[in-house]
């Protein structure tokens, strides 16, 4: 199915942003492995600290750096975006596969959000880029995959309200971040 230009461009930009963040995380992880005293470029303070996150077992949930999963996954998203911008019609099963993949990504990202907030106690900016791309990518790819079911009320509602759903989802994550680190944030004022 062919996408609207804005949606096609969103998928492309999401792929670029996610891939860039995954590559940056991988480079920073390699630097830490080479030199354990290395301070990553994204370690800004006690809370915004990639180094604190990247050295935990959660950063390698499957025995290798999580960012390698991101490189593979966001390459698929990037290629999908390029094909969509070029108006190549991708079959419904492809979008269904992307929706399932992005669902798995969203579940994994939410586990990582929980780990960052309540177990590690630090935020990684590159990781947060991945979070901010994965959530809307899941919603958008699911609404695309379900678009042929547009005659069904729930599919139409999901499609019409997809960006509101993303905004609500972002607000929930932002509120969780604010609440978790409130004691630190108020010291900055």
TrEMBL record:
It is a multi-pass membrane protein. It is found in: Membrane. GO terms for cellular component: membrane. Residues 4-145 form the Vitamin K epoxide reductase domain. One of its GO terms (molecular function) is oxidoreductase activity. Keywords: Disulfide bond, Membrane, Oxidoreductase, Quinone, Redox-active center, Transmembrane, Transmembrane helix. It comes from the Bacteria. InterPro entries: VKOR, VKOR_Actinobacteria, VKOR_sf. Its main location: membrane. The chain crosses the membrane at residues 7-27, 68-86, 93-114, 120-140, 161-182. Belongs to the VKOR family. This is Vitamin K epoxide reductase family protein. The lineage of its organism: Bacteria, Bacillati, Actinomycetota, Actinomycetes, Mycobacteriales.
């Amino acid at each position: 199915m062919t996408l609207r230009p804005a949606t096609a461009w969103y998928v492309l930009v999401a792929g670029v942003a996610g891939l860039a963040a995954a590559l940056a995380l991988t480079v920073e992880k390699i630097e830490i492995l080479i030199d354990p005293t290395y301070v990553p470029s994204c370690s800004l303070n006690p809370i915004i600290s990639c180094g604190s996150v990247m050295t935990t077992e959660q950063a390698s949930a499957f025995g290798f750096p999580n960012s390698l999963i991101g490189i593979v996954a966001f390459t698929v998203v990037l290629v999908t975006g390029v094909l969509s911008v070029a108006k190549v019609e991708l079959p419904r099963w492809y979008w269904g596969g992307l929706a399932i993949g992005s669902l798995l990504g969203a579940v994994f990202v939410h586990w990582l959000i929980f780990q960052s907030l309540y177990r590690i106690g630090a935020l990684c900016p590159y990781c947060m880029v991945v979070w901010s791309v994965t959530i809307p990518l899941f919603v958008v790819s699911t609404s695309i995959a379900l678009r042929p079911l547009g005659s069904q009320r729930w599919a139409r509602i999901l499609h019409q309200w997809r960006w509101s759903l993303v905004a609500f989802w972002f607000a929930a994550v932002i509120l969780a971040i604010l609440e978790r680190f409130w004691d630190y944030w108020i010291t900055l004022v």
